[in-house]
Amino acid sequence: MIQRTSTTAQQVRFGIRAHPLLLRKNPRTSASTIGQTTLEVIIALTLLTIALTSAALVVTSGQSLSVDSQESSQALRLAQRNIESMVSSAKQDFLTLASSTSVEGEFTKTIIVTDIDDETKQVVSRVSWSTDPLRTQTVELTTLVTNWQFAESSGGDTGGGGLVGDWSNPRTLGSVDLGAGISGTDLDVVGKIVYMTGEASSAAKKDFFVIDATDGENPVIIGSINTTNQGLLALDVAGNYAYAANNTSADDEQLQVIDISSSTNPVVVAEYTLPGNGEKGISIFYYNQRVYIGTEKDSGPEFFVVDVSTPTSPVSLGSKEIGDDVSAIRVNGNLAYIATPSDNELTILNVADPASITVASEYNVTGSCEDGLSEYLVGTKLYFGREDDCGHEDHHKFFILNVSNASSVSSFGSTNIGADVNDLTVRDTLAFLATSDSNKEFQVWNISNPASPSEIASFNFPQVGTAIDYEDNLVYVAVRSNDALRIITSQ
């Protein structure tokens, strides 16, 4: 563009040099000719001025583009540096990752950290600057960081990829019937393999199932076993082992350890009786080579920590008397979050020393007659579900709690479900609930605003939803009916 402008200027200058006024005057030139040539000079000078001005504008614009390009490159380097710093920090201490804003020269650097699930955070690195008062430029990079230490500690069950599609209009992808008289009680999904526990109408029926759901539309039972007389109530899978809570107090042996290295041939390799407790196991959680198991209310302890570093030889490390049922357990680091039917429905335990477990704090959710039933931990948010014992509209059943300070729990927000929240799982901005609502056993809630969660979809099942899990945009629901497994996805 500058080159074309230069050519125009040369043409104009040639016109001026060749103009008759710059040559020796011809005495016979008329007045009209002189007037004409004067006008031509004026026009030529005007064209020259316009051409030179255009050239100056082009040069200035080119300099501006060059400056913008340099600033954009510098901003991109800053954004990349911040992303790399956050990834490094995640490896050292995943839980401390936090949003921040700082200034470096003319650049404003913003880090936005969002919890995706209890093992994954989204990190946005944004750098902005002003090229002039009316124009702001921005460079933005996004990545996901994973708490690999937690993933390894929890058995590698990370939940896979995030949400896609329209979850306001979910659809059933496939289902499995466990057999007549067998209802689903719990499940855990790892790599499209569904491990499921059941409660049977007969002691001779099977209660542990391995289901290949690689083809979600046609899931198939590939392995099963009868472990106990009364069935199993809770389950957590880690590596080649499934840890299950026994539904009987008569036989003791509340902890069942099942070798699942062969999916088609699961085998019970250990049965362990919890010391000082004769009640049935109702909740279980695996973390860092330890199984945390809860029982129904007993005269002794109801919460136990069991070493399963050698899965075939479980060893008790310690226990704690809660004084009530331990309905659900989540563990992260040195803290165990348990849901109970007591007035303080949430109890947080310090389990750093299993031989001397202490209460870090207790939290009384509004309404004393609704029992704590279920929970799911994502970063510093604990999603908490309760029973619908009293039917009070003002006593909410689904809570989002702030547990950033374990000694001072507070509520972000809550809502009334109008039914028991038997289990729940969270991914990105959605919470999936398994409930006792006779018309909406499966529910989807938007939790992007924790202060005001909103229901966006539901399904009606033949029976109560008892357990739920998420993996790769698929939700797996255990149901208290013959058609005990439902696989649901988005449109």
Based on the model shown, name its key terms.
membrane, four-stranded antiparallel beta sheet, 2 domains, 3 helices, Methylamine Dehydrogenase, Chain H, LVIVD, transmembrane helix
How large, in whole angstroms, is the Cα Rg? 35 Å
Q: What name is given to the CATH topology of the largest domain?
A: Methylamine Dehydrogenase, Chain H
Mean pLDDT: 85
| Ends apart, CA distance between termini | 52 Å
CATH superfamily of the largest domain: YVTN repeat-like/Quinoprotein amine dehydrogenase
The CATH class of the largest domain is: Mainly Beta
Low-confidence stretches: 1-34, 51-63
**Which bin fits the share of residues in helices?**
10-25%
Number of domains: 2
By DSSP, the count of extended strands is 32
- Determine the structural class based on helices, strands and strand pairing: alpha+beta
Order of neighbouring strands in the sheet with most strands: 1-2-3-4
Supply the CATH architecture of the largest domain. 7 Propeller
The best one-word shape is globular
Strand content: 35-45%
Organism: Candidatus Liptonbacteria bacterium RIFCSPLOWO2_01_FULL_52_25
InterPro entries: LVIVD, Quino_amine_DH_bsu
Keywords: Membrane, Transmembrane, Transmembrane helix
Protein name: LVIVD repeat protein
Can you walk through the features of this model?
With 491 residues, this protein is an alpha+beta fold. The chain folds into 2 domains: 2-146, no CATH class; 151-489, YVTN repeat-like/Quinoprotein amine dehydrogenase (Methylamine Dehydrogenase, Chain H). The protein has helices at 2-17, 31-92, 148-153, and strands at 100-104, 107-117, 120-132, 135-146, 171-176, 182-190, 193-200, 208-212, 220-225, 232-238, 241-246, 255-259, 267-272, 281-287, 290-295, 303-307, 315-320, 328-332, 335-339, 346-350, 358-363, 372-378, 381-386, 398-402, 410-415, 421-427, 430-435, 442-446, 454-459, 465-471, 474-479, 485-489. It has a 4-stranded antiparallel β-sheet with strand order 1-2-3-4, covered by helices on one side. The chain has a 4-stranded antiparallel β-sheet with strand order 5-32-31-30, with no helix packed on it. Strands 6-7-8-9 form a 4-stranded antiparallel β-sheet, with no helix packed on it. Helix 1 runs antiparallel to helix 2 (31-92). Residues 1-34 and 51-63 have low confidence and may be disordered. It comes from Candidatus Liptonbacteria bacterium RIFCSPLOWO2_01_FULL_52_25.
